[in-house]
Write a structure and sequence with these properties.
The structure is a homodimer. In chain A, 38% of the residues lie in helices and 19% in strands. Chain A is built from 13 helices and 15 strands. Chain A has helices at 15-23, 29-36, 40-52, 117-134, 174-179, 191-203, 261-265, 267-276, 284-292, 296-320, 337-349, 352-355, 369-384, and strands at residues 27-28, 56-59, 72-75, 81-87, 91-97, 103-110, 142-149, 153-154, 159-160, 186-190, 210-215, 219-225, 228-230, 324-328, 359-362. In chain A, the strands form four sheets. The first copy, chain A, has a five-stranded mixed β-sheet, with helices on both faces. A five-stranded mixed β-sheet of chain A has the order 13-12-11-14-15, with helices on both faces. In chain A, helix 2 (29-36) crosses helix 3, helix 6 (191-203) packs across helix 13 and helix 8 (267-276) packs antiparallel against helix 10 (296-320). Chain A is globular. The two termini of chain A are 14 Å apart. At the A-B interface, helix 3, strand 12 and helix 10 of A face helix 3, strand 12 and helix 10 of B.
């Protein structure tokens, strides 16, 4: 059964009531009728569906001055579970979360994404079975699977599109493959969009305009505008890595070459520059480690990468006027060097109206940011968005 | 009475039904109940409110094979009117539209925005009274006023913020001033956002991701992502004019200076370049006229401005992945020169995934694009968005 044929877990017209209970305190039926302006009979009918599915349950009773206290109703995040999958070049994480995005069970492993979809997804399926079993949840409790991949993904079909570091995955039907084992909707997106969703939901839920930038082997952005992740017309929004960098960012060591941001500021680019300046390095991880021990060549290279990033982010800030720019990825974890370079340029170059309340901060989400975002993608689709 | 205290014209819960009738064919009550999944009693209650307000009326009856045919209901765009105001540096347009955004009556005049808010808004109020009177509509039929201004606007308060060509307007309470004459909600935004809304609604209603760029005395963009105009955290999104241009765009005549886009590609910048190359010009209008008669210096200057714009738009396309980039403003009306330069660079530089279905086109909206967008801003707020 495809997810189009499957009846929606929550009827479209009940989503407003459910959202009120998910984001606010427990309420009585009378309060819900008053707050929504709906007829009591309408509220009752919609709550019946939500209570039958277990999504809404009685909560502790409201204090009352006498007589039988009115029953309070609350959202029940344990009613169902979500499978969240975060795949990188060399790591994989599979987690089971509840409907609030809280992790119930998690398993991670070293994987080789370049080995192709079959062995990687075989591991995903077996890890998924293990986290389900270990948490004592039945397969019928599963409402969906969210997957983050380290490359471009056509979100509408869930297929990777020419992913550079994922040989064998081009146009592979990831949802179809996983649905052969778990008959639920499968949503797939690139890792940066997933991280943006996770960072927004966990650390900045009240901000409507946030840009998440990952600086690692590649460079990409996840864009939240008007409170929603924006994927663009073909799902390729956020491709910062292939933006050309203004000449004025270029210091003498780079020369006046025509270069895109990834060629200047990614982990491998910084490593190459370090190697040419007496501090051999090859990968983003090497750069991270050298930065953490404050190797002076690494610090200089990372800070200049921050300035180059800042040149592009100054444009992003003028264009999108976010209130938060979050910097993540391995290069960002090397201390304050990268952010210092970014801030130097962005605050110097963007217009005052765009920067007056702008914060440029480190990612808070840590290593579970990916699975968190993948879970939130599924929860939003199943509980929030209009049913198909 | 402020618009917060005013009862909403359309109750929140009735907006779904109204949207169905606005965007689709006339329907019977039974069809509406079936399409929405709502109880017939709920549909009846919501339709009562919509019929009482005149927004929904009986339409021609559906063909029936016998017996009394079921009554069809339709959206009635004539039920109310909107006042739409488009103010530029030297022109003003005031229009009365119906709820479909169709213009019922229009008046335009030469104005001097730099004369300050009082004389300009005095003209707006008197022109508004004339178009209301001439169209035979009562003041109580007015549901709101939309205003476009040629400078930065804090959309939440409707106040211009340090507008460069509008002396005396800084932080002026435009909504408060107009509400003294017409007691309805007043929404104000900058002209580029208004033009983006108009262009999207009229020419590209099915595209979710569109960027409108105005190239005139200044340069700015209106961004529609995920089907909605994105204003950013402080409402300054779309500030293309202050983005720095990559060095590689610079031809020898510009030199390797550090310049923002407006200093290279606006009407006055092109005019200055033309003057330095033997074709005296001063304003965007001079550039437009020289371009239209294919003056070779003008053609060269406009085409190079297009390439500079293209450098910045290549970044915009990688970042936002729009399906349509619309180019408007006086410089764009000078023929194909500007778009030729833009296309040359954008198609050469943006990534294939972002450009494979990208169209770069001229604005279609013409001189009424501003009032159209202003009307649509009001209609969306009053009929579509959640009530305050």
């Amino acid at each position: 059964m495809s997810d189009v044929e499957r009846p929606a877990l929550v009827a479209s017209e009940a989503r407003g009531l459910l959202r009120m209970l998910r984001t606010g305190p427990p309420r009585t039926r009378a309060q819900l009728a008053e707050l929504t302006g709906l007829a009591r009979s309408t509220v009752a009918a919609r709550l019946d569906g939500l209570i039958n599915s277990g999504l809404v349950i009685p909560a502790g009773d409201e204090l009352s001055s006498g007589g039988r206290p009115p029953a309070l109703l609350a959202f029940n995040p344990s009613a169902r579970v979500v499978l969240a999958v975060d795949l990188g070049a060399t790591h994989g994480v599979v987690a089971l979360t509840d409907l609030a995005g809280d992790i119930l069970r998690i398993e991670s492993a070293e994987i080789t994404i370049a080995a192709g979809p079959e062995p990687v997804l075989d591991w995903v399926v077996s890890a998924a079975r293990r986290v389900l079993r270990a948490s004592g949840r039945a397969r019928r409790d599963l409402i969906g699977i969210g997957v983050g991949l380290p490359g471009p993904v056509e979100h509408s079909s869930g297929r990777p599109i020419n992913p550079p570091i994922m040989p064998g995955w081009n146009r592979f039907d990831v949802p179809g493959c996983l649905r052969r084992h778990f008959d639920v909707p499968v949503l797939v997106d690139n890792d940066v969009n997933i991280l943006a969703l996770g960072e927004h939901a966990v650390s900045w839920p009240n901000e409507t305009d946030l840009v998440f930038v990952k600086v690692s082997t590649g460079i990409g952005a996840g864009i939240i505008s008007g409170g929603r992740l924006q994927r663009g017309a073909q799902g390729s929004a956020g491709d910062l890595g292939h933006v050309r960098v203004p000449f004025t960012a270029r210091t003498p060591q780079h020369g006046a070459v025509d270069a895109d941001l990834e060629a200047l500021a990614s982990g491998p680019a910084i490593a190459a520059w370090m190697s040419a300046h007496g501090a051999p390095a090859r990968t983003s991880q090497d750069v991270l480690e050298a930065g953490l021990r404050c190797d002076p060549v690494a610090v200089q290279g990372i800070r200049q990468a921050g300035r180059d990033l800042g040149e592009v982010l100054a444009t992003v800030v003028n264009l999108l006027n976010p209130s938060i720019v979050v910097i993540g990825g391995s290069v960002a974890r090397s201390g304050e060097h990268l952010l210092a370079g970014i801030r130097e340029v962005v605050y110097g170059q963007s217009t005052p109206l765009a920067t007056q309340t702008l914060s440029i901060v480190h990612s808070q989400a840590g290593t579970t940011g990916g699975v968190l975002g993948a879970a939130i993608m599924v929860i939003q689709r199943v509980l929030d968005e209009p049913a198909p």
